[in-house]
Automatic annotation (TrEMBL):
<keyword id="KW-0547">Nucleotide-binding</keyword>
<feature type="domain" description="GHMP kinase N-terminal">
    <location>
        <begin position="60"/>
        <end position="139"/>
    </location>
</feature>
<dbReference type="InterPro" id="IPR006204">
    <property type="entry name" value="GHMP_kinase_N_dom"/>
</dbReference>
<keyword id="KW-0963">Cytoplasm</keyword>
<protein>
    <recommendedName>
        <fullName>Homoserine kinase</fullName>
        <ecNumber>2.7.1.39</ecNumber>
    </recommendedName>
</protein>
<dbReference type="GO" id="GO:0005524">
    <property type="term" value="F:ATP binding"/>
</dbReference>
<keyword id="KW-0808">Transferase</keyword>
<comment type="similarity">
    <text>Belongs to the GHMP kinase family. Homoserine kinase subfamily.</text>
</comment>
<keyword id="KW-0791">Threonine biosynthesis</keyword>
<dbReference type="InterPro" id="IPR020568">
    <property type="entry name" value="Ribosomal_Su5_D2-typ_SF"/>
</dbReference>
<dbReference type="InterPro" id="IPR036554">
    <property type="entry name" value="GHMP_kinase_C_sf"/>
</dbReference>
<feature type="binding site">
    <location>
        <begin position="80"/>
        <end position="90"/>
    </location>
    <ligand>
        <name>ATP</name>
    </ligand>
</feature>
<dbReference type="InterPro" id="IPR000870">
    <property type="entry name" value="Homoserine_kinase"/>
</dbReference>
<dbReference type="GO" id="GO:0009088">
    <property type="term" value="P:threonine biosynthetic process"/>
</dbReference>
<keyword id="KW-0418">Kinase</keyword>
<comment type="pathway">
    <text>Amino-acid biosynthesis; L-threonine biosynthesis; L-threonine from L-aspartate: step 4/5.</text>
</comment>
<feature type="domain" description="GHMP kinase C-terminal">
    <location>
        <begin position="198"/>
        <end position="271"/>
    </location>
</feature>
Length: 291
């Protein structure tokens, strides 16, 4: 048997739609695999009642098929599904690392990224790698058509998770198909600034790099209370705020000693809009690990 702890992740980071992602120190999924004649899945933990155990509908089933590694797979969910914290991706990343070792496939973590992304295609219709990449590699990752690059970083973050679920599949429907040259220039500038901030572990630069006028406004409109929560986070000292992944989670970057204030301000803002919420005070983190 092999057991892997795979971290939550936050993708897009505002300016890096379908490209940027970052691993979080917490929360995480724990995935255990044992050899079997055919793949079966057992899900427990956060939101398990909403997660299919059919291998054709669960991200880990696609991973087992891609690796030709049938197994009994147990997933203990630490990351609520449809949360914007890479719940589906963490299971896929954990299963990829565990099955690769169990069946001695000898693939590198980088080579496992597109395999884990096939799991994402099962649930969202797109094999986007911007959650599975940081969950496998850790740190800040840049996923492009010719591969994935990872950067070690150490940036304090607050992830605030309102109760209303939003599926990635639904949230991809509101992404515009075209941008203006002015929007492109703003996004490129933000993306470059965010990348520099991650390379230098500079939360102020990361916050400035979250500015996005293309995807974020359309996603924010799906999240009840987003504008109030984002404004409250900035008032409490956040350097930047954006939608985490496809939402509804909201990601803020701030100084380490401001995380409690930022977390409390966002939770209160959501509650003032009738939305219960919880917040994780965390840091950028490492990739999946054997336990
Ligand atoms: N192993 C899994 N863990 C979590 N969700 C899964 C899993 N397998 C399939 N799903 C399905 O995927 C959906 C959640 O994935 P989705 O991409 O929408 O949200 P997320 O991964 O939590 O957030 P995001 O991708 O925006 O960070 C749910 O409908 C769930 O039923
Ligand atoms: N880039 C993906 C990430 C989902 O977590 C999206 O925003 O649809």
């Amino acid at each position: 048997m092999r057991t892997v702890r795979a971290p939550a992740t936050s993708a897009n980071l505002g300016s890096g739609f379908d490209t940027f992602g970052v691993a979080l120190e917490r929360p995480a999924d724990v995935v255990s695999v044992e050899r079997a004649e055919r793949t079966t899945i057992e899900v427990t933990g956060a939101g398990a009642q909403f997660i299919p155990e059919d291998p054709k509908k669960n991200t880990v089933g696609a991973v087992a098929e891609a690796l030709d590694a049938p197994a009994h797979i147990r997933i203990d969910k630490g990351i609520r599904p449809a949360s914007g914290l890479g719940s589906s991706a963490a299971s896929a990343a954990g299963a990829a690392l565990a099955l690769n070792d169990l069946y001695d496939r000898g693939l590198s973590r980088e080579e496992l990224v597109p395999i884990a992304a096939e799991g994402e295609a099962v649930v969202s219709g797109a094999a986007h790698a911007d959650n599975v990449a940081p969950s496998l590699l850790g740190g800040f990752t840049i996923a492009t058509a010719d591969g994935v690059r990872a950067v070690d970083t150490n940036v304090p973050l607050v992830a605030c998770l309102p109760e209303e679920p939003i599926s990635t599949r639904d949230a991809r429907e509101v992404v515009p198909n075209h941008v203006t040259i002015e929007e492109m220039v703003t996004t490129v500038g933000s993306a470059a600034t965010l990348t520099l901030g991650m390379c230098q572990s500079d939360p102020k630069l990361v916050g400035r790099g979250m500015v996005d006028e293309v995807v974020t406004p359309n996603r924010a409109a799906l999240i009840t209370g987003y504008e109030d929560a984002a404004a409250a986070a900035v008032d409490a000292g956040a350097y930047g705020v954006t939608v985490s992944g496809s939402g509804p989670s909201v990601l803020a970057v701030c100084a380490p000693d401001r995380r409690r204030n930022v977390a409390g301000a966002m939770v209160e803002a959501f509650e003032a809009n009738g939305e219960k919420a919880r917040a994780y005070r965390t840091w950028t983190g490492d990739g999946a690990e054997f336990v």
